[in-house]
Fold this sequence. Notes:
The chain has 157 residues and is mostly helical. The protein has a single domain (3-19, 36-151), classed as dinb family like domain (Four Helix Bundle (Hemerythrin (Met), subunit A)), CATH 1.20.120. The chain has helices at residues 3-22, 27-31, 41-63, 78-88, 94-114, 125-133, 135-151. The protein is globular and about 45 Å long.
Amino acid sequence: xxxxxxLIKEFDAAFQDFxxxxxxxxxxDFDTKWLDKRWGVREIAAHFTGWLGQMxxxxxxxxxxxxxxxxxxxxTDVQRWNDTFAExxxxxxVTQVLDELEHATNAFKQAAIRLPDxxxxxxxxxxxxxxxxxxxxxxxxxxxxxxxxxxxxxxAR
Length: 157
């Protein structure tokens, strides 16, 4: 299995675990702000949706021989991006939030598949992009949601 294929396989497993921890959560659960009293499941899902979309575009641009980020776009201002992503999902129903997450996930994976495998060596840009939004990051937030579910408990199990 190639490096790219390994990364995609790990991502798929981590994403399925993330989706399983969200299973059964209600609108109320998505609205509950338990992470620093500012974020909850809705914002975490939006965070992934936004970054997956940004990285999918970056991988697509790399496939055309361009730089990953558009001219004038600064991905290093992470908090500003996260705030933008969280703002984007305000007032959206859980089904819409999850549909957008699925769409962004599929776009990210398709962009990753189209980029040649040799672009995924450890330390290369595509590899670093995968690490930033991929399985390590998904697992981190999956555990946060799982801990919240276990300790505080959502309205639905």
